[in-house]
């Protein structure tokens, strides 16, 4: 059934976005600017959180980890895209492709788990303020973040092993700008129906499950603050809506991409741009611009402290 290792393709060809030099330079410029914004925005959040003692609340600890994950997530694919667009070199070694696939799912699934933890943090602050400091203690936060990374590692290991057990003897052209499970397994020289369903149930159900938990948490938060809208909590509702938009930018394309067998529908490379580039670029804006004066982050810390000492959780601004 499986061909000898010597017959395995030594490399894959990533088609990217365009074969013309003019369009390649245009895409290089767009990706470079987006990547620079991702690095700058998320790096500033990390520096602000680690250097300002006022930003020691669990929310900012989790936000700092989200920024680090966004930097890692975009760095898995974007530098390789920039090199390819500028040099025209589209080949990637088989081992390099598998490494990119592994780290893409490792960091991507860790981000999904972390966003779910952040939603739980906001739910606790709004709906159970008197127990907030006990539930979201520092040690608990570190444990939750470690669990997110561990869950991402397990998920990615399973995905990568499922791909590695497939024979690849040609063709070797990937209709995308990075190595991912759906386009890669289409090139396998074997019946991949069972593998496709296993991967869909793994990646797809993780994406869908985390998204449903996030929707449920935001629904409970909105129900909690809705009665207080007339008392000045429009900002809380609008901020919650903006956060839900950020979650949607990541989860909906992932659900579309992974919650189905790889061969049923083609995966658009432009859909992949949404969750590999656009979502990490927007997260710093969405998670910080709702604060007063753009970077007045300590405002939220004071709000959380007020929630812990007050029985009126609807007065908290959701950031």
UniProtKB/TrEMBL annotation:
InterPro entries: GPCR_Rhodpsn, GPCR_Rhodpsn_7TM, Olfact_rcpt, Olfactory_Receptors. Keywords: Cell membrane, G-protein coupled receptor, Membrane, Olfaction, Receptor, Sensory transduction, Transducer, Transmembrane, Transmembrane helix. It holds the Pfam family 7tm_4. It comes from the Eukaryota. Its main location: membrane. It is found in: Cell membrane; Membrane. GO terms for molecular function: G protein-coupled receptor activity; olfactory receptor activity. Residues 41-287 form the G-protein coupled receptors family 1 profile domain. It is a multi-pass membrane protein. The chain crosses the membrane at residues 23-47, 59-78, 98-120, 132-154, 204-225, 237-258. One of its GO terms (cellular component) is plasma membrane. Belongs to the G-protein coupled receptor 1 family. This is Olfactory receptor. The lineage of its organism: Eukaryota, Metazoa, Chordata, Craniata, Vertebrata.
């Amino acid at each position: 059934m499986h061909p000898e290792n010597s017959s395995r393709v030594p490399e894959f060809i990533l088609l990217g976005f365009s074969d013309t030099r003019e369009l390649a330079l245009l895409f290089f410029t767009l990706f470079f600017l987006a990547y620079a914004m991702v690095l700058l925005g998320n790096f500033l959040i990390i520096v602000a959180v680690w250097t300002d003692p006022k930003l020691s609340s669990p929310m900012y600890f989790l936000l700092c980890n989200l920024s680090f994950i966004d930097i890692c997530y975009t760095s898995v694919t974007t530098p390789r895209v920039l090199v390819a667009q500028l040099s025209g070199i589209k080949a990637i070694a088989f081992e390099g492709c598998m490494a990119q696939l592994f780290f893409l799912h490792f960091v991507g699934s860790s981000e999904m788990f972390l966003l779910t933890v952040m939603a739980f943090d906001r739910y606790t602050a709004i709906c159970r303020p008197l127990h907030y400091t006990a539930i979201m203690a520092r040690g608990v936060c570190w444990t939750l973040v470690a669990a997110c990374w561990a869950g991402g590692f397990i998920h990615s290991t399973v995905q990568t092993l499922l791909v590695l057990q497939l024979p690849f003897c040609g063709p070797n052209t990937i209709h995308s700008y990075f190595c991912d499970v759906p386009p890669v397994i289409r090139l396998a020289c074997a019946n991949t129906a069972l593998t496709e369903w296993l991967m869909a149930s793994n990646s797809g159900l993780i994406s869908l499950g985390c998204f449903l938990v996030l929707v449920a948490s935001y629904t409970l938060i909105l129900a909690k603050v809705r009665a207080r809208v007339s008392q000045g909590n429009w900002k809380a509702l609008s901020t919650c809506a903006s956060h839900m938009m950020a979650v949607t930018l990541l989860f909906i394309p992932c659900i579309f991409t992974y919650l189905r067998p790889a061969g049923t529908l083609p995966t658009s490379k432009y859909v992949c741009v949404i969750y590999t580039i656009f979502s990490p670029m927007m997260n710093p804006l969405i998670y910080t611009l709702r604060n007063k004066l753009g970077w007045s982050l300590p405002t939220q810390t004071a709000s959380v402290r007020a929630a812990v000492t007050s029985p009126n959780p609807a007065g908290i601004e959701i950031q």
